[in-house]
Design goal:
Blueprint (H helix, E strand, L loop, with lengths): L14 H29 L11 H26 L17 H20 L20 H13 L5 H12 L14
Amino acid sequence: MLDDSGHNFLDRLSPTELTPALIATTTILRVLTVFSLFEDAAEDGKVTLPSEPKFPDFCVVMRDLLCETWRLFYLLFRRILGVTSGRLPNGKLYENSQEHLDRCLDLLSLVHEELGVHKWCGYGNGTDDSKLSLTAGKLLALMIDQFLNFNTGEADPEILQCMFCLYGISVSVHPPLGNSN
């Protein structure tokens, strides 16, 4: 959704023009949530997984779709709220409402929390979390970018969690247990 100069194409469209896309994206998320509920039920032993040999591959595709659809939902939601990274004709950045920025960051936190429960937040781009590549985890990369760009200091734990999920990097301000220093 970025042009060659790195500008978001969605910033060129009005919130009114994007509302139908957000509604359609919400419908897709509802369908994908059914898959999530099915996997939860299978994990709890309430239903049995299909014996089809390709079912695990299907699960990866569904998780990828879920992450990619949440990423699209966020970008549409952000733009409909009027939050943009674009520039005015005079070259200045748009002023973004702090309330709207906070809502956007809250949405990312909630999505990450829900996907993280399943260990799916690193999906996207056709990989599973056991084989993360440098191109996997587009949603996590977007989260890190947004938390860094719009952070007021409260999102630092979110950034650290995203880095852990994406790269396996664990950073803490607390000393390890058993350290006498």
